[in-house]
């Protein structure tokens, strides 16, 4: 196996109203992977500060009173479909339990 064959192609969902910085404990490992040559796609709704080599897909901060995470999940679903069609993603990473449903819907 060559080094290129071992590259991770990761799709991550991160929903937070805080800034996304290199010091964020959830984003830091993704930035480290991207600096090592792995392909990282991050769908997020926080303010992005210094994204490094990560491919970012910011979503709109829409409010839905009864299910607050629904707009993010809906937007993430369509963005994820687009990413999966163009890239051979081999890892799906989500930080919240609600986002796992999206991984289940996107699985083959």
Question: What does the model show?
Answer:
With 108 residues, the chain is of the alpha/beta class. It has one domain (4-106): 3-Layer(aba) Sandwich (Rossmann fold). It is built from 3 helices and 4 strands; from the N terminus they run βαββαβα. The chain has helices at 28-35, 70-86, 97-106, and strands spanning 9-14, 39-44, 55-58, 91-94. A 4-stranded parallel beta sheet has the order 3-2-1-4, with helices on both faces. Helix 2 (70-86) runs parallel beside helix 3. The model has no long low-confidence stretch (mean pLDDT 78).
Q: DSSP strand (E) fraction?
A: 15-25%
The CATH class is Alpha Beta
Low-confidence stretches: none
Mass-distribution shape: globular
> What is the CA-CA span between the terminal residues?
26 Å
**How do the helices and strands follow one another from N- to C-terminus?**
EHEEHEH
Query: Roughly how much helix do the residues carry, as a percent range?
Result: 25-40%
Provide the number of structural domains.
1
Biggest beta sheet attributes: 4 strands, parallel
Count every beta strand, where a strand is a DSSP E run of 2 or more residues.
Answer: 4
Named at the architecture level, the CATH assignment is 3-Layer(aba) Sandwich
Name the strands of the widest sheet in spatial order.
3-2-1-4
CA radius of gyration is 14 Å
> What is the H level of CATH, i.e. the homologous superfamily?
Nucleotide-binding domain of ferredoxin-NADP reductase (FNR) module
Average pLDDT figure: 78
Core attributes:
19% strand, 108 residues, 4 strands, four-stranded parallel beta sheet, alpha/beta, Rossmann fold, 3 helices, globular
């Amino acid at each position: 196996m060559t080094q290129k064959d071992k590259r991770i192609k990761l799709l991550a969902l991160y929903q937070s109203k805080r800034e996304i910085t290199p010091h964020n404990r959830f984003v830091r490992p993704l930035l480290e992977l991207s600096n090592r040559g792995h392909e990282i796609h991050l769908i997020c709704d926080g303010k992005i500060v210094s994204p490094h080599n990560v491919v970012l897909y910011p979503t709109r901060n829409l409010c839905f009173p009864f299910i607050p995470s629904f707009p993010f999940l809906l937007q993430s679903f369509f963005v994820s479909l687009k990413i999966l069609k163009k890239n051979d993603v081999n890892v799906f990473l989500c930080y919240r339990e609600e986002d796992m449903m999206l991984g289940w819907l996107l699985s083959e």
